[in-house]
Amino acid sequence: MSIDPSLIRILTVDDHPLLRKGIAALVNTEDDMKLVAEASSGEEAIEKFRACRPDVTLMDIQLPGLNGIESLSQIQREFPDAKVIVLTTYSGDIQVVRAIKAGARGYLLKRQVHRELLETIRAVHAGQRRIPQEIAVELVDHPRDDLTPREIDVLRLIAGGNANKEIADLLSIGEASVKSYVANILSKLDAKDRAHAVTIGLKRGIIEL
Amino acid sequence: MSIDPSLIRILTVDDHPLLRKGIAALVNTEDDMKLVAEASSGEEAIEKFRACRPDVTLMDIQLPGLNGIESLSQIQREFPDAKVIVLTTYSGDIQVVRAIKAGARGYLLKRQVHRELLETIRAVHAGQRRIPQEIAVELVDHPRDDLTPREIDVLRLIAGGNANKEIADLLSIGEASVKSYVANILSKLDAKDRAHAVTIGLKRGIIEL
DNA sequence: CTTCGCCCCCTCCATTTGGGGGATCTATAG
DNA sequence: CTATAGATCCCCCAAATGGAGGGGGCGAAG
């Protein structure tokens, strides 16, 4: 029962069973990799990580519920040398910045993946970082301030079709405050109006549908 | 080289290679199914369909580029007895209605899929239809008119942060026309304002990010 | 301690939206 | 032919928006 030191033990985290199956199928055709666990939520990811101590973790950041980045940070806190590769569907995503800040070693778009996935797993396992150029550009293009929690609240309510006054009531603040939040949001997101802000917020993963 | 009549020959259409791999892995563990082709775009789907004449086609409707529903309709036109199951990520989706109108025999959310996928494949292959309740409810809740092409144009431009006057210029029509389109959009989508319309449009799959 | 960021509140005002109407014209379906 | 649906345009008007200022408190980080 000795452990082959060259065998890369992998944990996958994704809420789509089919995607996990796809990763499993891909990984298990490789001699030097082995899928040791799967998780479908942030909480489960943390549990499975504790239990298995995988060499490399492949993690979707847009998980149902609240976490994704959260569970990534927590894993990093507990296991500072955890090697996590983030998988995502969309590229233009502020989540990327957060993921990298939270300690992700690699970043991949679900779309490309084939060779890249295997290469990235091996590179990250070898201690390297793999952030695709496409994403690095994003980081330069949008060094923009992240929205504050309150601003995100407001943006979410905007997306829900609430007028400033309604937002004010819902948040128990004055309409004037809402207006200044909206102004900040538009400025930070470089949006032309609230509808545009919604589009950008969704694109960047600041809010969800 | 005789063809086993009980063997269900399957074509998968999805732009995510990993997802196709997942489906492949799942399908190939079943004795009565065989994956005979894969496509990653609408055009490719049509080609592959012509070439392979699969018994059942699993198709994602949110394909890159323009098609999805388009290629489904085209396949149905050419091969009226084609059995297509539509796969999608999100549920609240007007695409569903279109897909069903276009001749889809089954409808599945990527999320659930496991048993359901196999069951649905077999059911559809046997000539049945499989529209989950969850979706059927949508159809009742939103028997709403689909947006007209022009309205969709306008909605897309709204999402891009364009003011009515800008939309008018971009479409080379009068601002008054834009205003009436916007009014129609708000009414049809049951949206409170343009920002809300964007949210709903994205949720229903009328427009994309 | 002092600064800075976040959060809250305010006023004034031009511009834009959105909700009522209604009116042509064209193409297509019954 | 007639009805229907889509695309285009028009008016009026109340309400909301967004852009420009301003101020103040509070907590964390320097």
Give, in order, the helices and strands of chain A. EHEHEHEHEHHHHHH
* Assigned CATH superfamily of the largest domain in chain A: Response regulator
In the CATH scheme, what's the topology name of the largest domain in chain A?
Rossmann fold
Q: Characterize the biggest β-sheet of chain A.
A: 5 strands, parallel
Name the assembly state. Answer: homodimer
What's the count of strands of chain A? 5
Number of helices of chain A: 10
The tally of structural domains of chain A comes to 2
Query: Mind telling me the CATH class of the largest domain in chain A?
Result: Alpha Beta
Q: Give the overall pLDDT of chain A as a whole number.
A: 86
Q: Please estimate the helix content of chain A.
A: 40-55%
- What is the 3D form of chain A? elongated
| Widest sheet: strand ordering of chain A | 2-1-3-4-5
- Rg of chain A, rounded, reads 19 Å
Structural class of chain A: alpha/beta
- Proportion of residues in extended strands of chain A: 5-15%
**N- and C-termini, Cα separation of chain A:** 47 Å
Largest interface: A-B, 36 and 36 residues
Which second-level CATH architecture of the largest domain in chain A applies?
3-Layer(aba) Sandwich
- The residue ranges of chain A in which pLDDT falls below 50 over 5 or more consecutive positions are none
